[in-house]
Amino acid sequence: MIMKLSPNFSLKELTFSPVAELYDIANEPNQAQITNLKNLCLYVLQPARDEFGQQITVNSGYRCRELNTRIDGAVRSQHLEGKAADITCSDNNKLFNILLKNGNFDQLIAEGIKNGKPKWIHVSFNGQNNRNQVLIAQFKDRKADYMAFYPELYNKIYTL
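RE: above sequence
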């Protein structure tokens, strides 16, 4: 039976990882991490999906420590707690703007900007402790370079 975290998101899709499958890593969250994933879906992903009106694909949700290490994830990544997801859709610019407008997030990061569009979006949720931090991340040699987000500048440079 598939455990639904919200009407359009399941535990399976928030824990699936091709890297975990390749290296036979058990990427299984505990109850606290499942609760965090559910909150991420209910308060961030599902409202964005409802407004967007189209499918949102989760590229990476929960990551166990072994998986996070294998992919060179940040040591204190919110993915480890089930509080973050990397997502994509048919129009990442539109999705980014929906998430930004809704404002119910801890971090919102437009990642890997190419041809004026993020390749994917990282979004996290901490509940009442949300920082509402918005960043842009560019990558060079698999290392992220984070920059503060300024809407006026972003719109001129990246035509979001």
